[in-house]
């Protein structure tokens, strides 16, 4: 199965996982394609191809294969590292109520949908769906590392994270996209990513040799990348 | 020999206070008992008109108490659609004092909410705030969880607010014949199904409303002795009456009773005040100028005049200018002054009754 993984700097973790042999893509031929976050808005889906003005960069990311990405060449398209702002949602919802279940399903659904629709990946996926009928997956930006202490003093129950993920999944399914929630074994206390999946993350440019600063709590490492690739493989093997 | 009238101020005489002035110059209609401090937590509830109070307070930077806020990341249009930020808790309009008493008694735990839930086409509606979710709740459990949130919010208001502003709207209401509890609206108008054997009309009189209002004030004040109350009466006429009377005479009766109750209760309690928004809009010197062409809805000019009068009277009595928006923010009180649903129309369930008028049935009147 040939899949394209589109994303920003966060796809570096997945690329590195393969390079380091932490994930062996026996039945999965993975092509990576993307630009850093600040340039992500330049990506468009035109005439069946993902295109960007940063042609040299995407050519490098895809190991010299694609300066534009023809969707029909792939059995599935995966958007990884999508800024679905799961942590932001959790924090905002928790700030206003002591139980996320006090919001109605409709309210959460419509509130979250209006936010998710603004993400560039959602718009790209919706465009993609106009002529691409194979599988499309969205994998979110990981929760920040537990070292970020972003949720200091705020507790989140697991059923609340599950509830939020089910809402996101439902919203994405509305445009025929499958949601690949962050694997639960990488999550600490329903609100952070375990630090072991964050330490020693690398940048997308510089041939994956440049590390993010030690205090970077946003980018994940190859261990996490391998875990995501396993999830993708498992998901695609089901109902394929 | 002198009389008590000789030394009265100009405001005490019709000619000097009213006849010699243009309507917009009429002033000093209210002599507030107590100061509205910029940092006071002010909770607002009541009929449709009460929403203007909350909005005006927020706009002027007062610390309007939003005890049940929407997630701050949600867009204003979503918050408004789901009736967040309309009242201090997500009760929807509370038209009668009996309904207010019910909410307070549930929040304080002196009574339990009934189990009645309305269902239509697989969606579930709260009989006590049937329009709060535009399409109803997806399950009874979801409805009850949401109601639990509103009761906790009311409890927070009882515990922590400094002012409880309530706008009395209607004397007419509908109750359960069997158990006596109050519905927010007549069953069958917004949701539910009307059944004459189960539902009864009530037109509350002075004694009952006065008793209920005093109960509410005592119940809250027993918990929070710093709480002060401001009562107003909505100047918005009834959309429809079920009393059998003409809607005009029914309106006059209803508003007269509410005005008398509010005035009497305020006169008898030092920590209860009455603000005459009703008089400002409805009385003859203003010649109905503040009503929209339907002679019912209050125009934005009318609302602005009412609220300008409110703040002017405060300033005249206490010398306080309206605070800036930063005051509430300094106190870290949730305020939506910059991200609010206030640009939207007020939510007014009672208007739905207009859809039942002859010639209107089946038409969308809202």
Q: Structural class, from helix and strand content of chain A?
A: alpha/beta
Contiguous uncertain segments of 5+ residues of chain A: none
Determine the N-to-C terminus distance of chain A.
10 Å
Number of domains of chain A: 1
**How are the strands of the largest sheet of chain A arranged?**
2-1-6-7-8
Order of helices and strands of chain B: HEHHHEEHEEEEHEHEHHH
Provide tags for this entry:
heterodimer, A: 240 residues, alpha/beta, five-stranded parallel β-sheet, three-stranded antiparallel β-sheet, 7 helices, B: 366 residues, four-stranded parallel β-sheet, 10 helices, 9 strands, globular
Structure description:
The complex is a heterodimer of chains A (240) and B (366). Chain A contains seven helices and ten strands. Chain A is an alpha/beta fold and 240 residues long. Chain A has a single domain (2-237), classed as 3-Layer(aba) Sandwich (Rossmann fold). In chain A, α1 packs across α7 and α4 packs across α6 (158-173). Chain A starts with a strand and ends with a helix. In chain B, the strands form three sheets. Chain B has a four-stranded parallel β-sheet, sandwiched between helices. In chain B, strands 6-5-7 form a three-stranded antiparallel β-sheet. Chain B has one domain. The termini of chain B are far apart. In chain B, a hairpin with a 2-residue loop joins β2 and β3. With 366 residues, chain B is α/β, with parallel strands linked by helices. Chain B has helices at residues 14-19, 50-59, 76-81, 97-108, 140-160, 206-223, 247-268, 277-282, 300-318, 326-330, and strands spanning 42-46, 118-120, 123-125, 163-168, 172-176, 182-183, 199-203, 228-233, 272-274. The A-B interface holds A 85, 88-89, 92-93, 95-99, 101-107, 110-111, 114-115 and B 68-75, 77-78, 81-82, 133-135, 137-138, 142, 145-146, 148-149, 152.
């Amino acid at each position: 199965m040939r899949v394209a993984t589109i994303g920003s700097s966060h796809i570096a973790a997945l690329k590195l996982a393969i390079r380091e042999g932490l994930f062996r893509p026996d039945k999965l031929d993975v092509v990576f394609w993307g630009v850093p976050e600040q340039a992500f808005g330049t990506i468009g889906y035109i005439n069946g191809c993902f295109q960007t003005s940063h042609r040299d960069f995407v050519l490098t990311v895809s190991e010299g294969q694609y300066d534009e990405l023809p969707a029909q060449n792939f059995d599935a398209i995966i958007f990884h590292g999508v800024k679905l702002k799961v942590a932001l949602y959790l924090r905002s919802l928790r700030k206003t109520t002591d139980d996320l279940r006090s919001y109605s399903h409709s309210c959460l659904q419509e509130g979250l949908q209006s936010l998710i629709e603004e993400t560039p990946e959602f718009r790209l996926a919706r465009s993609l769906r106009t002529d691409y009928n194979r599988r499309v997956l969205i994998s979110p930006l990981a929760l920040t590392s537990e070292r970020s202490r972003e949720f200091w003093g705020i507790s989140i129950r697991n059923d609340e994270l599950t509830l939020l993920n089910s809402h996101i999944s439902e919203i994405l399914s509305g445009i025929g996209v499958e949601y690949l929630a962050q694997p639960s074994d990488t999550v600490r206390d329903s609100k952070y990513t375990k630090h072991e999946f964050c330490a020693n993350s690398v940048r997308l440019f510089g041939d994956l040799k440049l590390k993010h600063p030690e205090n970077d709590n946003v980018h994940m490492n190859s261990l996490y990348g391998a875990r995501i690739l396993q999830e993708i493989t498992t998901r695609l093997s089901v109902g394929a | 020999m002198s009389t008590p009238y000789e030394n009265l101020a100009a405001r005490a005489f019709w000619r000097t206070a009213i006849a010699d002035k243009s309507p917009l110059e009429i002033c000093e209609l209210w002599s507030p008992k107590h100061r509205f401090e910029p940092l006071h937590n002010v909770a607002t509830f009541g009929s449709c008109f009460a929403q203007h109070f909350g909005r005006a307070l927020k706009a002027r930077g007062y610390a309007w108490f939003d005890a049940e806020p929407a997630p701050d990341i949600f867009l204003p249009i979503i918050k408004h659609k789901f009736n967040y930020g309309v009242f201090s808790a997500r009760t929807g309009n509370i038209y009668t004092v009996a309904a207010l008493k019910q909410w307070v008694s549930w929040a304080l735990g002196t009574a339990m909410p009934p189990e009645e839930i309305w269902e239509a086409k697989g969606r579930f509606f709260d009989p006590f705030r049937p329009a709060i979710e535009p399409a109803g709740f997806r399950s009874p459990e979801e409805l009850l969880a949401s109601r639990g949130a509103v009761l906790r919010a009311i409890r927070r208001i009882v515990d922590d607010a400094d002012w409880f502003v309530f706008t009395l709207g209607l004397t007419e209401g509908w109750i359960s014949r069997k158990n006596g509890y109050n519905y927010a609206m007549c069953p069958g108008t917004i949701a539910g199904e009307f059944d004459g054997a189960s539902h009864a009309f009530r037109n509350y009189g002075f004694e009952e409303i006065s008793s209920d209002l005093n109960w509410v004030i005592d119940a809250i004040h027993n918990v929070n002795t710093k709480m002060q109350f401001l009562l107003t009466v909505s100047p918005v006429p009834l959309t429809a009456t079920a009393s059998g009377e003409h809607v005009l005479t029914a309106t006059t009766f209803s508003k007269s009773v509410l005005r008398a109750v509010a005035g009497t209760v305020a006169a008898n309690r030092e920590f209860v005040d009455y603000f005459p928004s009703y008089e400002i809009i409805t009385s003859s010197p203003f010649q109905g100028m503040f009503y929209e062409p339907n002679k019912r809805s209050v125009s934005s000019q009318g609302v602005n005049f009412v609220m300008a009068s409110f703040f002017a009277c405060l300033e005249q009595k206490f010398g306080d200018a309206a605070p800036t928006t930063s005051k509430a923010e300094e106190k870290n009180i949730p305020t939506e002054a910059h991200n609010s649903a206030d640009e939207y129309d007020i939510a007014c369930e009672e208007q739905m009754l207009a859809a039942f008028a002859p010639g209107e049935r089946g038409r969308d009147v809202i």
